[in-house]
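YM 10:42: Polypeptide N-acetylgalactosaminyltransferase sequence, as discussed on the call
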Amino acid sequence: SKKDKLAKDSNPIHKVAKSPDAAEEAPKNVVDNPVESNKAQEEVVQVEVAHQFGPPQRLTPGQLGNFEPRDYPSRNGPGENGQAVYTTMEERTRADSSTREFGFNMVNSDKIAMDRTIPDTRLDECKYWQYPEDLPTASVILVFHNEGWSTLMRTVHSVINMSPPHLLKEVVMVDDYSSKDHLKGRLEEYIKQFNGKVKLYRNPERLGLIGTRTRGAELSTGDVIVFLDAHCECNRNWLPPLLARIRYDRTIMAVPIVDGVDWDNFRYHPVYGEAHHRGIFEWGFLYKESAVPKKELSRRQHNSEPYRSPTHAGGLFAMDRKYFFEMGAYDEGLKIWGGENFELSFKLWQCGGSIEWVPCSRVGHVYRNHMPYGFGKLDVKIPVISLNYMRVVEVWLDDEHKEFFYTREPSVRGYPVGDLTKQLKFKKDHNCKSFKWFMEEVAFEVYDRFPKLPPNKAWGEVKEKSGMRCLDTMGQQVGGGAMGISGCHHFGGNQMFRINTKGQMGVGERCIEAPNGSTLHMHFCETQPTGPWQLDLTTGVIRHEHHEKCLEAGSGNKVTLEPCDPSNEKQKWVVNEVR
Ligand code: LR7
Ligand code: MN
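YM 10:58: structure's back
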């Protein structure tokens, strides 16, 4: 294909247009961009190669890749160079309450300059790429709901500072019905310093992040829309590598590599070491990242080149604006938060687009301590996220794979997902490929980690026949202490188990084992969907076939494996489906 051919073509043709006095221009912010394309004066050879190494002999230290910003001035305020900042004893109470309110330690964030420097986390190669001069312009869209002040505004400053001015059409802020005071007049005043480059729109009601993003895209005027969460810090030259892929092929969704920013001390750090990762999922549609398979890596010549990914975390990505709407934007039936990353990903891949992660584009994201906001009043009796997943599953998965989702989340099966006519019509009209194709050609490593699931033999709360207590994880995690039994609450959650026809007992994304032959513990599920648990539906006995023992309800919250005794009522269980 054309794409493959170009990826292999390493002959550098693109000429760099560089203004001679760029180095003398005073930086307006921390980082400015010394390169202004001046096509009238410079002979620019147009090539179709959007991501191409420049001629090595030109790339002396004074002549890096064509959009490379100058060096940071060295500064040493709190948090500079992405260093951690700390809370004093006097600040402790305020820091904790801000963390409860925003999911971030705002006391620490407030100490850090809006334009602090962060370490360049890119591969060294990245500095030497020559990007096309005629890149599309970008609207950076920040949707926000009750975000903290300094984390939000640092995002805006960072986008402005780190983007070549002529490529940044605007920053579009869309307030998703926030109630915090600092997001009212103070925000309106503050953005005036950006001379109209930062625009602010407000939702008349809570739309959730998904609907708000679509609205932000409608309000945008750039060629490309770039979504960022409202608590990000852009790294050096983050924008051109994303735009270059879209210029090359407008059906590519270009995704930056997400670095971590700590919610407490705001240290900026890469999430992974050398190895590239990409976005996948398990069958309950929890988002996962996994090392990129060799087969994909070897399609490229240079380790800093973009690679294809089945999906992405959701928050940070660039797309051709018109193409986003040609693809139907987000499903309007998705509510507030979650699953929209899969909807757009599956739709893109199955209907002719693609997703690429771009190693030379890096953006830091502050991972929250917890989600500080609710989802508002919604008439939904299952978790909103599950409802969103169901809409995605019902539209984009085939029967075989749908079944894996409902095996992993049996309690939501059959819940009404609302009208899908528009989505199904889109799929048909665009002749979209099957999910099987997607699994085989794009997401082929998923089965290695998350095998096809055999049917459940039983699922629900595991209740003692002779009492009112149910098997309960007791909040234990992998590597933690013993699980137990406690009063049945019929809400599922920590009391919702699945035993499949191959003997695996699962709870959520985890599996249950009895490593010491006595107490039950959480485990990472094996890469085979098998296990030692034999449930006899008639007698209610749950037997561990390797230890040759049976599950017995003890005193207090205890549950253990004991020698099997068919006459012991404490070894009899009933599994009740709960919805
Ligand atoms: O009702 C809401 N309205 C909003 O405008 C809820 C949230 N929001 C805003 C919010 O202020 C923020 O700017 O939407 C943005 C995302 O919300 P977060 O930061 O609470 O989400 P998250 O970072 O916990 O979750 C990830 O998954 C989400 C749901 O699917 C979105 O896709 C987020 O963008 C996504 N974040 C990322 O991908 C960041 C990187 C990796 C992670 C996690
Ligand atoms: Mn976020």
